[in-house]
Amino acid sequence: MGGLPGIVTARGYRREWLRTDVTAGLVLTALLIPAGMGYAEAAGLPAYAGLYATIVPLLAYAVVGPSRILVLGPDSSLAPLIAAAVLPLAAVDDPDSALALAGVLAVLVGLILLVGGFLRLGFVTELLSKPIRLGYLNAIALIVVVGQLPKLLGLSVDASGLLAEIGEIGRAVIDGGIDPIAATVGVGALAIIVAFRLWLPVVPGVLVAVACAIAVAAGAGLTDDIGMVGALPEGLPLPSIGGVDWSDVGHLLGPAVGIALIAFADSGVLSRTFASRHGEDVDGSTEMKAIGVANVAGGLFGGFPVSASGSRTPVAEQSGAHTQLAGVVGALAVLLFVLLAPGLTAYLPDAALAAVVIVAATALIDVRGMVRMWRMSGVEFALAVAAFLGVALAGVLQGILVAIGLSFVAVVARAWQPYRTELVRTPDRPGFHDIERHPGGHRIPGLVLIRFDAPLFFANGQIFDEYVRSVVAKAPSPVEWVIIAAEPITGLDTTAVDELVDLDNYLEGRGIRLAFAEMKGPIKDKLIRFGVSDRFDGTQFFPTVEAAVDAFHRRTDRAAEH
Fold this sequence. Notes:
Shape: elongated
Structural class: alpha/beta
Number of strands: 8
Order of helices and strands: HHHEHHHHHHHHEHHHHHHEEEHEHEHEH
Oligomer: single chain
Strand content: 5-15%
Number of helices: 21
Low-confidence stretches: none
Largest sheet: 6 strands, mixed
Helix content: 55-70%
């Protein structure tokens, strides 16, 4: 590998990068603190855990991470997954228990990613196709927003499940359960963030809103009137995964796999995107291992699972970050905040933090993407909707598994009923073309040309057989040869080979010769390996369709001479 990426970057560091890296790190801090605390609360954990889950992973990633500007930390797409995994196992009203479980979960996620990186399994993220990710992120946004509304409005809600929570929030609002002070602070913070984002985006509106909320709460003495985040524990974060037994580890293992998949999928896409912008290349397996190390480190020191941030990474880039030093500066600034001003968050209202999370979560909503998907592909739009409904109604992990299962069903369905057609000549262009698209084309008397656009396997072998027989039966003149344009056939299994033999027997019984054009070498090798090379000899294979048709003409010409 040539050394750890962070060390390699440090050796080649340029002095002119220093000022912009430090500036970017300080600008980043304005988002790291409120976002980290907000996502921790969204995951059902103490707010300060979000700071530990920011500091340690950023420092670890700066050493082992291949991307120069990727910013790791708590993320809204993981918060519901973490809550779903940890809260059912945690002791009631015991934040230390939940935090220990979250730490173990992060370690498990990290170990899974490390193993996956060493085995070069980055391709598994392709299980999360674009429709699934689109539906998943929209559902996550809805779950996070609904989960934060009670804090924003000062409501008391005790419901599980998205629909039940929405219903209870609606009833509480109708019954006048809104706390006017909390709602004023929360909605005010929300308005400040949105206003700065719309009219003054160069200023971090999140920081302005949080600072204003703290000032109002301290100045008006609101600490006893509405919920507050509370002061941070003093001192440095220490290892905090004690008290978790092996049965809990077993329960966390399944969710850890799902979180690892989502975390790397998000991080891998961001890493490749930002690397390509700067003309760089990032190895997916190295990235997977780096995110694994960051999660293990964060889990051991009071944190929870993290991934790359789609909101903080662009801020680092726009602020001029050149290297991992920007993340290091941000992490150290957050650490100084923890050490020097731990009591400041005692004046931070929960409602203001809820506003921060809601604004961040709404960035995940992509209605235009759903509309575009609907216009492009009805099947993929249905998958996106299935992922959305599954995640929103059945649960995050269950919904993802359902959506992945449906994706496999869609793949099998496409291969099960692939496009197949008869090929014909056309007067205006050379070669042979799809009769469906060129109905004016003409057939060659005595010859049937067929193309089947899929691998041949157990699910479609019989369909292939029946299609060929049906075309032969409907041919306008007696058929002497059937030529399969086999270039699109990229796979073959034993069931499909049996179907080919049956088809050849059927055609032979009617005096019809079966031939193949443009069949790929690996498919021919399979025919030999499956023991039917004597059935399909070399005279039945042709390098091109034209060569096969020429052979047909020569054969019929010789027959006419005799």
